[in-house]
Design goal:
Length: 772
């Protein structure tokens, strides 16, 4: 323990010793430095520090009050006690007022030790107090510095009345006020939004009651001086042992606005019918809109956080990796995928991927837009199929023209051979050739009818002929493992309709029946007249009472379930494998039947086959019993001259032979130009022109226009390797009845020629003033 250090200002050495002895007797062991002059007093105070100053009041050249003044200036914290012989009450009071700690008379030194101890204790308390004050001042300065320089807005709230007793500059700036306008003048509640005020007061009550249930952090809307709202995130703490809270506020207005904008964008994205999703760079889904829910059948809750590649691209890892590489290199990728929905349904989607980057330009997410193009792809496939059929029709027309040109001379030549070949074997051979030629011609006709899809127009027709044509085609094209049979009774009523369309319907149903019997089976086509009363018609969808012709197509195939039966007429629905059917056949067929005022009835059972009944309204038109018409004899010519124009030499030669055999004279031309020239040369002698439509240099239409202009009374026959429906737009109305589709028989040729001559003669007779 350090000894007590005392500076003693005393000119009497004996008195100084007496003071020292007195202190020692009272167990005070001081180290005393004695001085008796002013200079020494000032010098020693400037050099050393002392715990106590003892000072005589009366000195020869230096008085006590001057010493006190010097001590207060040079050692203000050091206590000073006057030790003097006489001091007087007035001077003693002045000395205490001027900073002396105490005074002790020399004749009463026994009081000195207690005065010293009291002075030292008071000094220690003053030091402690001043240290505490300094620390408090330092703490307050530090607190105010931190409070003011904090990056957040801060406020001290008096919980008694919600008054803001202290705010920092950031708080004032946040709300547009000066600190002086706020501190101790405005309450916390004055800033609150009306809707948030009840919650603010509730939390205030919870803090005051010290229940501990008041949240430390929450968000409020506070009003700026201008009236604008600021969204703030607030952290608030009660100061222990006080009724004061310190609040720290962070302005989150921009974040809230961004969140609101994101919500609005998300709402717009939810309206978008396309599937929209966002994946992070770890392939986890972070956004999934309503369109994605509808397309893929998974909800947003099911998909957020899932890896999309693990759901859709397990079997397409290489393709997926290539797409990812492209989007990272080029910032976007576009392509088509075949995906599966939650239920396992396969869909085709058009995909667009866009790379999203952060503010530093680093990839942060991938934005994906997916459009369901499944139906579009089906329609495109159907469109391509239609285009192919149109191409087939165009090709078939050209082939049919050439085939019919080739078959024409055969047809006409058989007649001449019959007159020269008289033995039975030769006649049988000719009959076989004729049958094969007719069969070939019929096949060409059916190919044209089916491939071209031509519209023959609505006419009164006999269903028997359509069924016979269908039977001929399917017997030649269906597998031999399918047994085909037909049953069409005599006296079948006529129907009114488009033969081409009815042919299309029946062909489609027969093809379906064939596909339902991959291992073979039986296909039966029957027809009959039926009459439906009102009660019966009520049980058949789309039926009304009346007379019908019903065509029944029945197979022994795999049949259909009830679920499939309910959907067979839906467009694009099919049970066939991809590439085996479009799902449009039955829906198209039903549309055709309804357009003919008919209806369809389907009966099927799995494993037991299918029966489809097609009902067409019967036409009340008298009909001649088949086989009762008397065959006319071949018409004979009477020397009329006929100009035959065709680019096929075989047709020209066989036509001349036929004409000359039956009393006509023939002139031949190889094309339209030659035909016009020959007609102009022999115009007065030519009675009829037999002309092919499609020829080089000058086609038949232009040639006929020229010759009829030269001689309106000339009879005209038109030949073509394609049906009338394909060329009728090119022909004049009075020419259409005299159309010959190659190949044709001698009977048809001569009969049509005779009708054309008679028609021309009647027309000319009715207009005798017309000049040639």
């Amino acid at each position: 323990m350090e000894r007590l250090r005392i500076l003693h200002l005393e000119d009497n050495i004996y008195d100084a010793e007496l003071v020292h002895t007195t202190l020692l007797k009272d167990r005070l062991d001081p180290v005393i430095t004695r001085v008796d002059k002013r200079d020494d007093f000032e010098r020693i105070l400037s050099q050393e520090q002392f715990d106590l100053i003892l000072c005589d009041y009366n000195l020869p050249s230096f008085d006590g009050l001057s010493a006190l003044s010097i001590a207060r200036q040079m050692a203000a914290e050091t206590p000073l006690i006057f030790v003097s012989g006489t001091i007087g009450e007035e001077r003693a009071i002045d000395s205490l007022k001027n900073g002396a700690t105490d005074y002790v008379l020399k004749d009463n030194l026994q009081r000195l030790p207690s005065a010293v101890r009291r002075a030292l204790q008071e000094q220690e308390e003053r030091v402690k107090h001043r240290k505490a004050e300094l620390e408090l001042q330092l703490a307050e300065t530090r607190y105010r510095t931190i409070f003011e320089s904090s990056g957040t807005a801060m406020a001290v709230i008096e919980e008694e009345d919600m008054m803001l007793s202290l705010v920092n500059s950031n708080f004032a700036k946040l709300f547009g006020y000066s600190k002086e306008e706020i501190q101790n003048k405005m309450k916390w509640t004055e800033f609150a939004h009306q809707d948030d005020l009840p919650r603010m007061k509730e939390y205030h009550v919870l803090r005051r009651t010290s229940s501990g249930s008041a949240p430390r952090e929450y968000e409020f809307r506070l009003r700026h001086k201008s009236g604008a709202l600021r969204h703030v995130h607030m952290t608030i703490e009660m100061v222990p042992e006080t009724k004061t809270s310190i609040a720290s506020l962070i302005d989150i207005t921009e974040r809230k606005q961004a969140e609101e904008q994101l919500r609005q964008q998300a709402a717009l994205l939810d309206i978008d019918p396309n599937a929209i999703m966002v994946r992070d760079m770890d392939d986890r889904i972070i956004f999934w809109n309503k369109g994605a829910e509808k397309l893929y059948e998974w909800t947003k809750e099911e998909m957020i956080g899932k890896r999309w590649s693990e759901i859709q691209y397990r079997d397409m890892k290489e393709e997926y990796a290539a797409a990812m590489k492209t989007v990272l290199e080029r910032s976007e990728w576009h392509g088509e995928w075949t995906h599966k929905t939650k239920s396992g349904k396969e869909i085709i989607v058009d995909c667009f991927w866009k790379l999203v980057k952060d503010e530093k330009g680093n990839p942060s997410a991938i934005y994906l837009v997916k459009t369901d193009i499944t139906e579009k792809k089906k329609i495109q496939a159907q469109y391509l199929r239609v285009q192919r059929m149109e191409s087939i029709g165009t090709l078939a027309s050209g082939i049919a023209h050439d085939l019919n040109n080739a078959l024409g001379p055969v047809f006409l030549g058989i007649h001449f051979l019959r007159n020269t070949v008289t033995d039975e074997k030769g006649q049988r051979t000719l009959h076989l050739i004729e049958a094969s030629t007719k069969r070939a011609a019929d096949m060409v006709k059916q190919v044209l009818l089916f491939a071209r899809g031509g519209d023959g127009g609505e006419t009164t027709l006999q269903i028997r002929h359509v069924i016979n044509e269908i039977e001929s085609i399917i017997r030649d094209t269906f597998p031999k493992s399918i047994e085909i049979s037909t049953n069409i009774p005599k006296g079948l009523a006529l129907v009114k309709g488009d033969a081409t369309q009815i042919h299309q319907v029946m062909m489609n149903l027969c093809v379906n029946a064939r596909d339902a019997m991959p291992e073979g089976g039986a296909l039966t086509i029957t027809a009959e007249n039926v009459s439906l009363d009102g009660q019966t018609a009520a049980f058949l969808e789309g039926a009304t009472s009346g007379d019908y012709v019903v065509i029944r197509i029945q197979d022994t195939g795999v049949g259909m379930s009830e679920e499939v039966k309910e959907r067979i007429f839906e467009p694009f629905f099919t049970t066939k494998a991809v590439g085996k059917g479009t799902g449009l056949g039955l829906s198209t067929s039903l549309g055709i039947i309804k357009s003919h005022r008919g209806f369809m009835n389907v009966e099927s059972e799995q494993g037991k086959g299918t029966r489809i009944d097609i009902y067409f309204p019967a036409v009340s038109t008298p009909q001649t019993e088949e086989g009762t018409e008397k065959r006319e004899e071949f018409p004979q010519g009477h020397g009329e001259t006929v100009l035959v124009v065709d680019d096929e030499s075989s047709i020209r030669e066989i036509s001349r032979a036929t004409l000359e055999s039956y009393g006509y004279q023939a002139l031949l031309a190889a094309d339209g130009v030659e035909g016009v020239a020959l007609f102009a040369k022999h115009m007065k002698d030519i009675d009829a022109v037999v002309c092919d439509i499609n020829m080089p240099h000058l086609d038949g239409t232009a040639m006929l226009h020229a010759v009829r202009k030269m001689k309106p009374s000339v009879a005209v026959l038109v030949m073509s390797g394609v049906p009338l429906g394909a060329v009728q737009g090119k022909l004049a109305e009075d020419v259409k009845p005299f159309f010959l589709q190659k190949p044709f028989s001698v009977e048809v040729f001569l009969t049509t020629l005779d009708k054309a001559l008679k028609s021309a003669l009647k027309t000319w007779t009715r207009t005798p003033l017309m000049e040639e």
